[in-house]
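Lay summary. Proteins are chains of building blocks that fold into shapes, and those shapes determine what they do. In this project we predict the shape from the chain. Here is one chain we studied, written as its sequence of building blocks.
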Amino acid sequence: MTEDAGYRSARRAEEPSGTAVGFILFAAIMMIMVGVFEAIQGLVGIFENEFYVATRNYLFKFDATTWGWIHLLGGALVALAGFGVLAGQTWARVVGITLAMLSALANFLFIPYYPFWSLLLITLNIFVIWAVAAHGGDLREPV
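And here is the predicted shape, written in a compact code that computers can read:
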């Protein structure tokens, strides 16, 4: 085997599989979508304060406007991290997993206000965490 052929086969071994790239693309797009969904959820809480009905005797009972700001800022950060994951940035993977985890936690605490929407966003965040953790490093530039 020639030296050039050995280099090409080693280079080919470092290239990410199509499945891994697909999962990362999925995770990045889902992060952007979750961020936009969560920002919309936050805007509703800010501008239409009476849309969400607070339950009685709930430990994490905040005003709907407070929840709105939490979701708006969290959603914007998740969407920005999604663009970073789409660009293949390593920092965005760490930030994306952390923000998806915090987003899922915030939506868990928000379940009494809007259960279906909160459970949907928790599920999407779990898919994002799995895809970025399992296949996030496959988009890095080969050294």
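What the prediction tells us: The radius of gyration is 19 Å.
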